[in-house]
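Morning!

This is the sequence you dropped in the shared folder:
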Amino acid sequence: MDLLLILTYTGICVAIFKAFNIPLNKWTVPTAILGGIILIGSLLLLMNYNHPYTKFGREFFVSTPIMPAVRGVVVDVPVKPNTQLRKGDVLFKLDQTPFIAALAQKEAALADAELQLLQLEASYESAKATVAKATAEKNRTQDAYERYEAGHRKGGANSPFTDLELDNRRQVYLAANASLASALAQQERARVAFEGTINGENPIVARAKADVAKAQYDLDQTVVRAPSNGFVTQMLLRPGMVVVPMPLRPAMVFVQTDERVFAGAFWQNSLLRIKEGSEAEVIFPALPGRVFKARVTQVIPAMSEAELQASGSLAGTQRFIQHSRPIVLFELDEEHMNEKLGLPLGLEGEVAIYSDHFTHVSIIRKVLLRMGSWLNYLFA
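The structure's back. Tokens below.
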């Protein structure tokens, strides 16, 4: 941009000198140079502060490392590299044999758990019957003991029941009472085992169902699908290879096309003129002569050059002499996104932001940006 201004001014001066036959002497040449310094310097100061420009712009995209959730042998890779995919399309498949066997085993365990539940129900019913029997026995021995005790009390010394017989009846009654207590405890244990629930389900069955769900999930993960719209590039995965989950290396890299953002790095002296929603224009060397509308969406509120993290070493003075630029995010119009189809993601570009200050100077910036679009193409 600066060079374009200087060349333009130089061309105008040469044209004026030729058109009006102005002689080149110690007065005319210094006047033209001094006028150029004042004019171009003023324009640069006004433009660079009020309408920031940077040649450090780039379109960024997100790539997703594809790693299976289970370990297995690759049996099929139907995806073709560098072809557009939809979310859910199959990327590759693993051998399902061990996972089908594991699922069948867990389903058998679930069936066994359901049989155990029936057995627990039967045990509970048996415990209730035992309690009923023990209750009846306790009542019978209690009645007998009470009759013996009443007869012994009324008869006194002439009682038909001896002390030994009364004591035997008392011992039988106490034993029946203890048996009832034991039966009640067994009934409660059987009831808890049968009626105890987790989220409304018996723990044994719930655990078996969870195992079946986990086995089904592992089986489903043998088919790896696209996480979003995008494509796979530089694909080296082939059938017969063994792939494993984290933390080892990914099986392939998936490039998402739904999330793209254009960003530019600007000088810090223009931060006060960069606002969210400001109008901007972008040019790409790959698209000469085209200028695309954009809008500032965000100024990232941190610069990585000043980042500090807890570690075992001190931060040196190198961080103070590193120059940092704030990063500004842009939203490009839909026209650019459609017309750029077929070009690789990650294009670099140049961007200018237009503020509400000194709007007449922004016209010069726009003209220079359009001239630069062609010059970048011709002299790249």
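Headline: The helical segments are 2-19, 28-50, 97-155, 163-195, 203-220, 318-321, 334-339, 359-379.

More detail when I'm at my desk.
O.
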